Amino acid sequence: MLETMAADLNDTALMLRYRDGDVDAFETLYNRHRAALFRYLVRRIGNQTLAEDVFQEVWSRIIRNRKNYRPSAKFSTYMFHIAHNCSIDHYRKSGNQQNIVSDQEEGVPEAQANTGNPVAEAEASETRRTLTVALSNLPDEQREAFLLHEESGLTLDEIGQVTGVGRETVKSRLRYALGKLRRVVPRPEAAGVNDG
Amino acid sequence: MAEHTRNNGTDPVTDEELEAYLDGQSPVSEAYRGLGQTEPPEALDRAILREARNEAFVSGDMSGASGFWQRWMRPLGTVVAMGFCLALALQVLYQDTGVSVDERESAAGFVGVPEQEAEPEVVVEELMMLTPSVGDPDLPAAKPPLPGREALTQDSFEMDSSADMATPPTLTEPPLSIQEMVVMNRTREQQLHDAPESVAGDSEEVFVTVRKAEERDTRLADNAVAAWAAGARPAARVWLAGIESLLEYDETGLLEEELEKVSRVYPDDAVEYRGRLRSQLDAATRLLTLRQPADKEADGSRLDEIIVIGADADIADAKVWAAGIDLLIEEGEDALAATEIAKFRQIYPDYGI
Question: Half-sphere exposure of residue B271, counting CA atoms within 13 Å on the CB side?
Answer without folding.
Answer: 4
